[in-house]
């Protein structure tokens, strides 16, 4: 089995190193979860990440960040933790993760157990991409005030880490509060926390609460400016006594020449987003697209 871009590959006579993974809205009308996981591993990709939306309110007061009408896939996604648990049982090598989990829409004690269980089933291959979300009506249905979503997310992360690392965990914050508890299983290790987002303060969150950064669909013509942010991130990490902080690009351009631009500007992993295949031919179309994307890695 070859591995896509885990080793330097040649692009226009130049060696490029960037890992290539897949991210998808895994839907009930698309390729089956187990089939997809097997196919991603068979083609040598480094990782497979899933998105999350617990539901989509029929109200469209919150504009979709992508512009226009909200695509159908947003309201048809599998629960990522259930799906990843199944995927873990039929794969051995690939990283499995969320990109991103909307953690404010979970109870922290339930979520701590879900993540720990998935990580153990995957034998330590789980990475936990998180974000505060954009859909205000969706948050409201979970009792989350959009004005405090980022602060709540950071408390959630602190509480989760307490449950994962302490025999008798407790946490007392403004949004999350519980007295000493027992909760097993523990994960194989604290899963790497990848902070999603691209706003002006996202690097602060990555440095304070994360192990990696997931920026979203940075245009190729904006990579030089983006690269300066990556340099700032790594410089600040070094000043804080931390090592290299991995950068995972969500929704990379599906072009071989773009991989060189990502590598030149500090991206460690590119997640190609699968198209929204549906209907009787969804599985075959998804596998054909995976073949095309694997070829980009040389």
UniProtKB/TrEMBL annotation:
Residues 34-262 form the Luciferase-like domain. One of its GO terms (molecular function) is alkanesulfonate monooxygenase activity. Keywords: Flavoprotein, FMN, Monooxygenase, Oxidoreductase. It comes from the Bacteria. InterPro entries: Lucif-like_OxRdtase_Rv2161c, Luciferase-like_dom, Luciferase-like_sf, SsuD_RutA_monooxygenase. SUPFAM superfamilies: Bacterial luciferase-like (SSF51679). NCBIfam families: F420_Rv2161c. This is F420-dependent oxidoreductase. It comes from Pseudonocardia dioxanivorans (strain ATCC 55486 / DSM 44775 / JCM 13855 / CB1190). The lineage of its organism: Bacteria, Bacillati, Actinomycetota, Actinomycetes, Pseudonocardiales.
């Amino acid at each position: 089995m070859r591995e896509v871009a885990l080793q330097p590959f040649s692009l226009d006579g130049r060696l490029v190193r960037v890992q290539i993974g897949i991210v998808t809205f895994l839907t009930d009308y698309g390729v089956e979860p187990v089939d997809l996981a097997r196919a991603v591993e068979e083609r040598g990709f480094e990782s497979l990440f899933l998105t999350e939306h617990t539901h989509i309110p029929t109200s469209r007061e919150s504009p979709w960040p992508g512009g226009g009408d909200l695509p159908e896939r947003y309201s048809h996604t599998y629960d990522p933790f259930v799906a990843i648990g199944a995927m873990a049982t039929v794969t051995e090598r690939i990283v499995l993760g969320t990109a991103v989990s909307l953690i404010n829409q979970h109870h922290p004690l339930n979520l701590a157990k879900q993540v720990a269980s998935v990580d153990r089933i995957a034998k330590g291959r789980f990475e936990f991409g998180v974000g505060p979300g954009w859909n205000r009506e969706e948050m409201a249905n979970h009792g989350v005030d959009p004005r405090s979503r980022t602060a709540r997310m950071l408390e959630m992360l602190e509480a989760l880490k307490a449950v994962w690392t302490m025999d008798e965990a407790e946490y007392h914050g403004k949004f999350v509060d519980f007295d000493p508890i027992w909760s097993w299983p523990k994960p194989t290790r604290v899963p790497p926390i990848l902070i999603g987002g691209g706003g002006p303060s996202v690097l602060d969150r990555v440095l304070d609460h994360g192990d990696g950064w997931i920026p979203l669909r940075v245009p190729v013509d904006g990579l030089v400016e983006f690269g300066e942010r990556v340099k700032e991130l790594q410089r600040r990490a070094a000043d804080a006594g931390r090592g290299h902080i991995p950068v995972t690009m969500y929704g990379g351009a599906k072009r071989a020449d773009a991989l060189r631009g990502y590598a030149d500007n500090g991206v460690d992993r590119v997640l190609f987003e699968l198209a929204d295949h549906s209907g009787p031919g969804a599985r075959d179309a998804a596998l054909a697209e995976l073949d095309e994307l694997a070829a980009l890695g040389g």
